[in-house]
Amino acid sequence: MKKRVLLIDDVEFNLEFENSVIKTFIEETGIIIEVDIASTVKEGLEKIEKNTPYDALITDMNLPDGTGLEIAKASLKKSEATRRAALTIYPSKYEHQRAFFDLFLRKPIMPESFKENLARLLQV
Fold first, then answer.
1. Could you report the per-residue pLDDT of 51-70, keeping only the tens digit for each?
2. Which of 6, 37, 85, 101 has the fewest beta carbons under 10 Å from its own?
3. Is the peptide bond before 108 cis (omega within 30 degrees of 0)?
């Protein structure tokens, strides 16, 4: 089984953390996951446009050039099958945008919680 995930965050540490946890998840489950990374809305939109639909995307909600909502909408337009998660300190602030996200992940996120939510997003 191969899955594709897009991570969008403007904080390098967060991307490194998420990527590291995904590597551990791969080792534990044997699921092959290809990870693409973006640090801006522009980069995220380009990855969505240029690639086949992702199985899942996890986006920070506050990016230097816009919001994760823009990314979620573009992803939804490309494929309704992509599962989307918003990563934010204030999940309740974005509750009214629930139609665009399958999950809201609260920062700071712990490794086990991240793996559990990744499994939910990937539906494994």
1. 999 999 999 999 999 999 99
2. 37
3. yes
